[in-house]
Write a structure and sequence with these properties.
Elements (H helix, E strand, L loop, with lengths): L1 E6 L21 E3 L3 H7 L1 H5 L5 E7 L8 E3 L5 H12 L8 E4 L7 H8 L5 H8 L7 E4 L2 H7 E8 L1
Parallel strand pairs: 4-5
Antiparallel strand pairs: 1-3, 2-6, 3-7, 5-6
């Protein structure tokens, strides 16, 4: 499968150590299978007068040695996982996590849930009408090394 990672630099050799804490699925290397989403993300660098570079990879089939979890909807499981990761709380760990992004469409709802203004039910009621974007987070350096292969980079 072809996947994309947009940054202000070419990332031919991705690693986990340069990842930030408190992201949607925790520390890891984030990708998307949606090219248009990757191109759109590049605008945040362009607005800051930085280069926007879309890195393109081939993700090979993941072996049974790695744990994988799919969040197929904005549901209570996704919401609680995002909340735990963003707050730095204990949460289940997986080598590869796939699901929707807490992007501009849904961030306000997630933030209101994280601060206790919305209950889980209120947040889910708001999220049920949102169509998830796509993110893939690889949290294991071994999974990155074994299954993610750099193809090329494109300046946006």
């Amino acid at each position: 499968m072809i996947v994309f990672h947009t940054s202000n630099i070419e990332v031919a050799h991705p690693d986990i150590k340069h990842s930030r804490d408190y992201l949607d699925f925790g520390r890891g290397f984030y990708l998307t299978k949606l090219e248009e989403q990757a191109r759109s993300y590049g605008q945040r660098f362009i607005r800051r007068d930085e280069p926007a570079i879309m890195n393109i990879y081939e993700l090979s089939e993941v072996t049974v040695y790695f744990s994988y979890h799919l969040f197929s909807a904005y549901d209570w499981e996704w919401l609680d996982f995002i909340a735990a990761c963003r707050k730095g709380l204990p949460h289940p760990t997986f080598d590869i996590i796939e699901g929707g992004i807490a992007d501009d469409q849904v961030f306000d709802t997630v933030d209101l849930y994280l601060t206790g203004v919305y209950s889980r039910e209120q947040a889910l009621d708001q999220l049920r009408f949102k169509q998830p974007n796509h993110q893939l987070c690889i949290t294991s350096q071994q999974a990155l090394d074994d299954h993610l292969h750099f193809v090329k980079s494109v300046i946006l």
